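## retry 2 of 3
previous attempt timed out at serialization; input unchanged, resubmitting
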Amino acid sequence: MIGGDGVFKRPREKIFEAYIGDNKEKLFKIAYVYLKNKDDAMDVIHESIVKAYNKLGNVKDLDNIDSWFIRLMINTAIDYIRKNSRTVLLEDKDMEVLINKSKVQGDGFNLLIENLNEELRLIIILKYFHGYKIREISEILNLKESQVKNKIHKALKLLRKEFQEE
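## retry succeeded, writing output
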């Protein structure tokens, strides 16, 4: 098949392009968790797409493209933060950007989740807003499954405590 720029596209590229097209909103939300700035999140997504496209030939199993790309994007976001040597605080009042189509309604929960640290917030978002399994989260974040379970438990405990104080 010939792409829009006249380049022949192989099946890997088609799969990758379909993945990006189908997941752009989710990818933006995850990048935004790290960068807390729309423009920076878009920069990291674009940089990640270029990196991933160049590494597609090295990927053995495209069945795990989701966890592979998210891990690459998270690493790119961390590098971006280091390179720009600024601290990214996750205190945005506009949490709807992160949980636009969430299962939970209302600003109260948004304010509660805002108080979690970056890692706990990301795990909660991946688990409860994007429906990832513990195994998938462990692959994405490069943690053991037991660590993910412990962090989910810790986050839920903190959220319950915050909720009861409200």
